[in-house]
Write a structure and sequence with these properties.
By secondary structure, the protein is of the alpha/beta class. The chain is built from six helices and eight strands. It has one domain: Alpha/Beta hydrolase fold, catalytic domain (Rossmann fold).
Length: about 270
């Protein structure tokens, strides 16, 4: 059972996420500082996204890039909902760590990646990306041409559906990202060798009723078996909102920005 099946699970995820996004936001005053844009492909497909550039962005100096992938409850085309769970903005609010941040919005009823809802089955990997993921990769390529992005410091993070999307994207673009932060997601652990050279910090809530914590554990265990630089934080009393703590962890931001494909990975 994949994203084409398990509609009951999909409805449950969406209902849960919508309930979570009703909770007060942490950084609402910063939302307006993210430019509203729409990426248009050569075939006419569109992908709304928000773009943050640091206050003193200099086109002559390279800058780290952070890609944020939202969860299922924030899908749509309003170019607003992807900011509902806005704790991720904490990653770019420190002027000591200037970075470009891009936050695309997945269309309604679509997915960043294949998701296996049946916890008795392993998470698989589709050879072809979903359309939103394909457009996201095209968007990244277009931003590389427009902005001065540091090729050694590209980062990706996401929550829930976006946590799955984070690992999926790492496997589609080996060697592209220096670090990743998947939260309450999962991925195909049999393909762990493809992402063994990426610094990854995984977060999950042990009491998650939506995405089984085993999804993260399997990926982490597979990476550890091959000596990959992976960190894992499991909150014992947290459900399906681990991002509310993860993005505010004091160590996360400095850990993220010290990762570079030019330097050895640090755990």
């Amino acid at each position: 059972m994949s994203i084409g099946a398990g509609r009951g699970w999909a409805v449950a995820i969406l209902a849960f996420c919508l309930a979570q996004t009703a909770v007060g936001q942490v950084f609402p005053e910063w939302h307006g500082k993210l430019e509203k844009r729409v990426y248009r492909s050569r075939t006419g497909k569109t992908l709304p996204y928000r773009l943050w550039k640091p206050a003193h962005y200099d086109s002559l100096r390279s800058c780290p890039l952070i890609l944020f992938l939202h969860g299922a409850g924030e899908r749509g085309d309003d170019n607003e909902a992807q900011l509902k769970n806005d704790e991720f903005l904490n990653l770019v609010l420190d002027p000591q760590h200037p970075a470009i941040l891009v936050a695309p919005q997945c269309p309604k009823d679509q997915w960043w990646s294949q998701i296996e809802f049946d916890r008795s089955r392993p998470q698989g990997f589709s050879p072809e990306p979903t359309e939103p993921m394909r457009l996201t990769m095209e968007l990244l390529d277009s931003l590389e041409k427009e902005l001065r992005i540091d090729p050694a410091r590209r980062y990706v993070t996401g929550l829930s559906m976006g946590g799955f999307g984070t690992i999926d994207l790492l496997m589609r673009r080996p060697g592209y990202f220096a670090a990743a932060v998947p939260i309450c997601g999962g991925g195909d652990s049999s393909r762990a060798s493809l992402i063994a050279d990426v610094a990854i910090w995984v977060f999950h809530g042990a009491q998650d009723p939506v995405v089984p914590v085993e999804r993260s554990r399997c990926v982490v265990e597979a990476l550890k078996r091959i000596g990959a630089p992976v960190r894992y934080t499991e909150y014992p009393d947290v459900g399906h909102d681990a991002w509310k703590k993860a993005y505010l962890e004091p160590e996360l931001r400095p850990w993220l920005f010290q990762q570079s494909r030019e330097r050895p990975r640090k755990q």
